[in-house]
Amino acid sequence: MDQRAQELHLGVRLAALIGRTRATLLATLAQPASTTHLSHRLALTPGAVSQHLTVLHHCGLVARSRVGRSVLYRRTRNGDALIGHQKQEG
After folding, report:
1. Of 23, 67, 70, 87, which is least surrounded by CB within 10 A?
2. What fold is seen in the domain 3-88?
3. pLDDT (tens digit, 9 = 90+) per residue, 9-24?
4. Which of 71, 66, 67, 23 shows the shortest CA–CA distance to 46?
5. Which SS3 state, helix, strand or coil, does residue 80 take?
6. Distance between CA atoms of residues 77 and 9, nearest Å
7. pLDDT, tens only, 22-45
8. First-to-final CA distance of the chain
C-alpha cells in the first residue's frame, strides 16, 4: 500500500473511533483556529463546529484560549498523540 493509501486507511480508522467530522476537525487544528474559520474551511455551520469542538475539549483533545475577541482552538498533546498515533499504526 502506498503512503497516500495508507494515510487514507488510517484516517478511516480514526474517523471510526471519534467520528468523521471530529477526526477532520482534529486534523485541521495543526494550527490554532477559530470556530468561524473552521466552519468556513470545512463548510459546516458554526453551531455544528462548536458542538464538535466542545466534545473534543471535554475529551482533552483540544484546548481553547481567548485572543482579543476570538476564541482559538488548538490540539493538545493528547490530540497530537492521537493524530500521530493513527499515522504511525499500520
Report:
1. 67
2. Arc Repressor Mutant, subunit A (1.10.10)
3. 556 777 777 888 999 9
4. 71
5. helix
6. 23
7. 999 999 998 999 999 999 999 999
8. 10
Query: Rounded to an integer, what distance in angstroms lies between the CA atom of residue 53 and that of residue 57?
Result: 6
| DSSP-based three-state secondary structure for 66 | strand
Strand partners for 62? 75
Q: What is the pLDDT of residue 16?
A: 75
In degrees, to the nearest 5, what angle opens at C-alpha 9 toward C-alphas 49 and 32?
35
Buried b (16+ CB within 10 A) or exposed e, 63-84: beeeeeeeebbebbeebeebbe
Ordered alpha helix ranges (H), 1-90: 3-18, 20-28, 35-42, 46-58, 77-88
What is the Cα–Cα distance from 19 to 30, expressed in whole angstroms?
A: 18
Q: Cβ atoms within 10 A of the Cβ of 61, count?
A: 23
